């Protein structure tokens, strides 16, 4: 597997379908692991706890959504932590339930590694997208595709960037 490990991960350009999710939203003062981490971490604890308390099963991999905040401080980031749920779920106490819009065109890359490596992976990925001429928006997502029993350092995370 030596040569394969040295090659750059492939970027796939594709549509991302909408999803029915239960979610919480918060804001970070700006992008970067030191600002986003303290906000997103607790949300990833709260959402599944509220789903468990309501007896609502998760219907797919959880995700984080990150984009420039429409209002407030310049540079602020809107963060949404969402867990897919069945289409017939309309209410979960403490959570917003609804549709996470699909993306008509997105660049998707699989990152292999723990959460502590995501910041550096994002920086390299965004630099690569710019160098290769992709026209990106401020909307990005992380989809945590590995099951909970997989050790963190072996996680696979989809890094998704909306394209214009």
TrEMBL record:
Gene3D superfamilies for the chain: Regulatory factor, effector binding domain
InterPro entries (alphabetical): AraC_E-bd, GyrI-like, Reg_factor_effector_dom_sf
Cited SMART domains: AraC_E_bind
Name of a matching Pfam family: GyrI-like
Domain AraC effector-binding intervals: 9-164
Protein name as catalogued: GyrI-like domain-containing protein
